[in-house]
Write a structure and sequence with these properties.
- This protein is an alpha+beta fold.
- The protein folds into 2 domains: 5-123, no CATH class; 140-239, no CATH class.
- 29% of the residues lie in helices and 38% in strands.
- It is built from 8 helices and 13 strands.
- The strands form 3 sheets. It has a 6-stranded antiparallel beta sheet with strand order 1-3-4-7-13-12, with helices on one face. Strands 8-9-10-11 form a 4-stranded antiparallel beta sheet. It has a 3-stranded antiparallel beta sheet with strand order 2-5-6.
- Strand 10 and strand 11 (207-215) form a beta hairpin.
- The radius of gyration is 22 Å and the shape is elongated.
């Protein structure tokens, strides 16, 4: 999955109805003048409806949308003052069911050219976002081929002691359980072995790391620091969140916690405008 979910939703919504001819749409003009009109309210209603329809077509689920524009002509151009989208039980790409997300603009002049394919961000845009991730969602993400590069790095360091063949997570009892499958490259077993590490989560320098790490004594008396080093390298949650970063977008994590067996991430996303 090349697009992170939040970017996916932002770029999927701008299938808008046709509006009248443009008027003045500069940032200075729109911010300095009042734009009270029944037609503006009607236009916002139509846009809200169009956004919901576009979202449900791309990713079925339950949505609540708030949208504020300036004028009909600026909306037609893709300029707006506020957008907030809340989604529940959203099905992405027919396989990933996202329990909940909320994104809302914190910039009051936002310009997306939706006439281009894909859409082009013409202004810098900032979003506050909350996203809930179930273990099903996380496991779908780490099946992507890019995560294999993470395992390859670990295996280069681990050779010839062991080789990781797969990673999956389980979120239970408000803790993250990371289950690693492994084998022995010099004397491979018929079936892979498994090793499970349990942890909370913390944020360090805008990256997610396991916290309060533990493992079952059935695996033997392993040095806890070596276990922590291993789980830091594997780190599936950090891989998922970093998918939001690109040349155009940058995510910042403000808070992460596990509640009711769901990982809740609170953060921001900055999108750099085309002309910046």
């Amino acid at each position: 999955m090349k697009k992170f979910l939040i970017i996916f939703f932002i770029t999927s919504i701008f299938v808008l109805p046709v509006f009248p001819k443009e008027d003045r749409t500069t940032e200075e003009y729109l911010k300095q003048n009042k734009h009270i009109s029944l037609m503006n309210f009607a236009g916002e209603h139509l846009v809200t409806k169009a956004i919901k329809q576009a979202l449900k077509k791309e990713a079925p689920g339950k949505y609540h949308v708030k949208f504020k524009g300036y004028t009909l002509s600026s909306i037609k151009k893709g300029i707006f003052s506020y957008l907030e989208i809340t989604g529940e039980n959203v099905l992405v790409e027919d396989e990933i069911k996202l329990p909940y997300f909320n994104i809302k603009t914190t910039t009051d002049y936002n310009w997306i050219d939706y006439n281009q394919n894909p859409v082009v961000f013409k202004s810098d845009m900032d979003f506050d976002c909350i996203i809930h991730l179930s273990d099903t969602v996380v496991n779908k993400f780490i099946k992507e081929k890019d995560y294999q590069k993470v395992l390859d790095k670990v295996n280069k360091k681990a050779y010839p002691l062991f080789k990781l063949t797969g990673v999956m997570v389980k979120i239970k009892n408000d803790r993250l359980h990371t289950i690693m499958s492994y084998n022995f490259p010099l004397a491979p077993k018929e079936k892979d072995r498994t090793f499970m590490v349990t942890s909370k989560l913390k944020i360090v320098n805008n990256e997610i790391f396991p916290d309060n790490v533990s493992y079952n004594s059935v695996y033997g008396n392993l040095p806890i620091q070596k276990v922590i080093n291993l789980i830091n390298m594997v780190n599936p949650m950090n891989f998922v969140v970093k998918m939001a970063d690109s040349k155009q977008s940058k995510a910042k994590i403000k808070e992460i916690k596990i509640v009711d067996d769901v990982v809740i991430i609170n953060g921001t996303i900055h999108i750099k405008g085309e002309d910046k």
